Each structure stands twice: as structure tokens, then as C-alpha cells.
């Protein structure tokens, strides 16, 4: 009976968040360029018709993926409208609690409270229509509760696939990592042609935790994707986060790092590859809310054809955050005249006892480097390829080997330059 009551309480709380988000979605408009964060991304140029409220999500039959993942501590494959397929490959992962609102299982009172806290926290932070749609229905949402002192050797891999669904895909992932947790997390979001995707990620990093996370967005042409990510860092926690974006008509991502614990440390890395007519807009916010914390962001983009990238980086230091040490850097390579890369780094400082800075560069491939390489028998196409690989490798080399080996191909396999492109 206690388990039934607990599940009913969770269901009621999550439904209330869904209903509140539906009301906000219905009463709001899509963001417009006059809004600071959206000044380089005009949604009127994209097909937003796929983002509609779900009337009755229903349940599809269980489907086991063709290729299960073995090189992981725990893996979850989630396809639109279907139950997650879960593999636990390491004994230390046995204590992790996974909760799917669409397929509720037994859950204890402590985990129930954490699920509600995760959902409640995200509902307080979301502030525009692209996020309201994501929180309007939890049919493709996964909650993960990781107990204190869990240390995993291999990464947790979570793959969310929009499949062939005609409905919007809402791949939300909410994680609570307890004290002294050490883990690596890989989240992959894929969309088929013309998919409509809006996902929320919320991770609480407990005291003395070491979290290495990554999010890969790889969608097909015509797709529109919104990915909003929130990280909350407790005392002495460490976060290394990587994100990459490629494909689709539009990918708009935002990553917010909330330093709420002293001596927390966040390292953000990101790569963008925009080709054809792809429009990719990435924003990072390093929010320092307490004293003596460190953060850095290193973002690189390559654009070609008529692709466009936008990077907006903000370091925000609150009154209560002296001894902040923060830095952000953005470097862009534009491969031809039709492509465009915009860089908008900014600082918002309310305390004088800090060390904060930013840097940005945008340019073409250095002709001297090409000349040097071709003079040694390398073709021009091969020379450009080597330069691009070196350009992105500066980011990938900061990642652990297993995260790098998983994430590397999604960008690097696409930047191949043919002889006629040289």
C-alpha cells in the first residue's frame, strides 16, 4: 500500500507540473530576436508546426534495440513513445534508481522525494515556450537517482531517439548524484528527418562528486531541436561537461552552470559543425552564486556551405561570490564565403574581488599552414583536413578516453574535405 501511495503522490506532482507548463505554453509566444538570447535566431524562419501539445501520448509496445550497449556501466535506450530498454553491466550500478513517469515502477520514499525535487527545480528555472513544451508531458522522461559513494568505471550511456514519430519528441533527463559520486555520463539525442525535439536536462552534482558528462545532438535535415541543460554544483564538486551539435535545420542549446557550493569547479567544452543551411545556436551561462569557485568554457565551431553558428557565452558573478575565477573562449573557422559564425561573449560582474575574462576569434584556415603542409607532399585537401582535426582535437583531448571515443565520430566523420572542396 505504501508503494502505491508513493507512486500516486509522484504522479500527482508531475501531472501538476505538466498542467502548469501547458498553461504557460498556451499563453506565451515563441521567443523573438528582440529577446537578448534570441537576437541571432529568428524562429519565424523555421517550421515550428511540429511543436504541439500532446493530447493522448498512449503507450507503444516494448521494443528491444537491435544493438545493445555493453561497453558501459549502465545503458538506456529510449525511443519516442516506447518503454526504455535498460542494461546494467556493472555491479556498482545496481543501486541506481531509474524512474519513468510513463511506466512507473516501485520507488521508495527517499527516491520519490528526490524525483519531485528534480522536477520542481526545473519547473522553476524554465522561462520560455521551447522549455514549456518539454515540461508539458513526461512520456519520454527518465529520472535517475544515484546514491552516495557510487563509483563507476565505465560510462552511463543514454540514447534518446525521436524514431519515426510524428509527434514532438521530449527527451527529458533528470539526475540526482549523491555525495562522493564518480561517474561518466553520455547522452545522445538523435532525430530523423523533420523531427521536432525539445529536451530538458537537470543534474544535481552532490558534495565531493566528480561528474564527467556529455550531450551529443545529431539530427537529420529539416529537424528543429531545443536542448536546455542545467547543472547545480554543491561544495567541492567537479564537473567536466562536453556538448556537440551538428545537422538539422536548427539546433538551439543552452547550458546553465549554477555554482551553489563553495570550491565547486566546472569545465565546459563544446564543438559545433554547421554545414549546408544548418543554423546552430549554443549558449553557456557560468553562474557563480557563492564564493571561491572556478569555471571555464572552451567552445569551437566550424561552418561551411551556408551553415551558421552562434555562440553566446555569459559569465555571471553574484554579489555573494568573491574569489570567483572564470574564463570563456570561443574560436571559429569559416570555410567559405557563404558560411557565417557569430561570437557573443559577455560578463556580468557584481563583485570586485574576482578574476574573469573572455576571448574570441573568427577567421579562415591559415594559408601559411596549408603552404607548409603542401610543401611536404601533402595534398591541399589533406592539409585542410589535418588543420580541422587539430582545431577540434584541442577540445576532445580534454575528455576521458571512453567519452572521447564515443563522441568523436559524430563531428569528425563529417568534416572530411574532398579534393574538389580544397
What's the average pLDDT? 92
User: For the largest beta sheet, what order do the strands appear in spatially?
Assistant: 2-1-5-7-9-11-13-15-17-19
Number of helices: 6
- Give the CA-based shape: globular
Number of structurally distinct domains: 2
**Per DSSP, what share of the residues sits in E-state strands of 2 or more residues?**
35-45%
SSE class: alpha/beta
The amount of helix comes to: 10-25%
State the end-to-end CA separation.
69 Å
Q: Which spans have pLDDT < 50 for at least 5 consecutive residues?
A: none
Order of helices and strands: HEEEHHEEEEEEEEEEEEEEEEHHH
Number of DSSP-assigned strands? 19
Backbone CA Rg: 21 Å
Largest sheet: 10 strands, mixed
Keywords:
422 residues; alpha/beta; 2 domains; ten-stranded mixed β-sheet; nine-stranded mixed β-sheet; 6 helices; 19 strands; 20% helix; globular
Task: Please explain how this structure is put together.
It is built from six helices and 19 strands. By secondary structure, it is α/β, with parallel strands linked by helices. It folds into two domains: 2-261, no CATH class; 366-422, no CATH class. The strands form two sheets. Strands 2-1-5-7-9-11-13-15-17-19 form a ten-stranded mixed β-sheet, covered by helices on one side. The protein has a nine-stranded mixed β-sheet with strand order 3-4-6-8-10-12-14-16-18. The model has no long low-confidence stretch (mean pLDDT 92).
Amino acid at each position: 500500500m505504501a508503494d502505491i501511495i508513493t507512486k500516486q503522490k509522484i504522479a500527482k506532482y508531475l501531472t501538476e507540473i505538466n498542467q502548469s507548463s501547458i498553461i504557460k505554453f498556451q499563453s506565451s509566444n515563441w521567443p523573438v530576436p528582440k529577446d537578448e538570447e534570441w537576437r541571432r535566431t529568428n524562429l519565424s524562419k523555421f517550421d515550428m508546426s511540429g511543436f504541439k501539445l500532446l493530447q493522448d501520448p498512449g503507450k507503444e509496445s516494448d521494443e528491444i534495440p537491435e544493438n545493445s550497449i555493453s561497453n558501459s556501466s549502465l545503458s538506456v535506450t529510449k525511443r519516442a513513445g516506447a518503454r526504455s530498454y535498460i542494461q546494467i553491466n556493472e555491479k556498482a550500478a545496481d543501486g541506481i534508481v531509474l524512474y519513468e513517469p510513463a511506466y512507473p515502477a516501485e520507488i521508495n520514499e527517499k527516491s520519490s522525494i528526490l524525483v519531485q525535487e528534480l522536477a520542481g527545480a526545473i519547473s522553476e528555472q524554465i522561462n520560455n515556450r521551447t522549455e514549456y513544451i518539454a515540461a508539458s508531458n513526461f512520456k519520454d522522461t527518465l529520472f535517475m537517482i544515484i546514491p552516495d559513494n557510487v563509483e563507476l568505471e565505465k560510462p552511463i550511456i543514454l540514447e534518446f531517439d525521436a524514431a519515426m514519430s510524428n509527434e514532438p519528441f521530449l527527451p527529458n533527463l533528470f539526475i540526482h548524484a549523491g555525495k562522493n559520486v564518480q561517474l561518466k555520463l553520455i547522452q545522445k539525442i538523435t532525430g530523423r528527418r523533420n523531427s521536432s525535439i525539445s529536451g530538458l536536462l537537470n543534474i544535481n552534482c552532490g558534495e565531493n562528486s566528480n561528474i564527467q558528462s556529455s550531450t551529443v545532438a545529431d539530427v537529420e535535415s529539416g529537424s528543429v531541436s531545443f536542448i536546455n541543460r542545467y547543472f547545480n554544483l554543491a561544495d567541492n564538486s567537479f564537473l567536466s561537461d562536453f556538448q556537440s551539435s551538428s545537422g538539422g535545420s536548427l539546433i538551439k542549446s543552452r547550458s546553465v552552470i549554477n555554482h551553489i557550493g563553495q570550491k565547486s569547479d566546472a569545465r565546459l567544452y563544446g564543438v559545433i559543425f554547421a554545414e549546408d543551411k544548418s543554423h546552430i545556436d549554443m549558449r553557456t551561462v557560468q553562474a557563480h552564486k557563492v564564493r571561491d569557485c572556478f569555471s571555464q568554457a572552451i567552445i569551437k565551431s566550424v561552418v561551411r556551405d551556408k551553415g551558421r553558428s552562434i555562440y553566446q557565452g555569459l559569465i555571471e558573478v553574484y554579489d555573494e561570490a568573491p574569489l570567483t575565477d572564470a574564463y570563456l573562449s570561443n574560436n571559429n573557422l569559416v570555410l567559405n564565403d557563404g558560411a557565417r559564425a557569430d561570437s557573443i561573449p559577455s560578463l556580468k560582474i557584481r563583485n570586485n574581488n574576482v578574476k574573469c575574462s573572455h576571448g574570441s576569434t573568427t577567421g579562415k584556415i591559415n594559408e601559411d599552414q596549408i603552404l607548409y603542409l603542401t610543401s611536404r607532399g601533402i595534398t591541399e585537401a589533406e592539409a585542410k583536413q589535418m588543420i580541422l582535426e587539430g582545431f577540434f582535437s584541442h577540445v576532445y583531448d580534454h575528455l576521458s578516453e571512453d567519452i572521447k571515443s564515443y563522441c568523436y565520430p559524430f563531428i569528425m566523420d563529417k568534416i572530411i574535405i574532398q579534393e574538389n572542396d580544397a
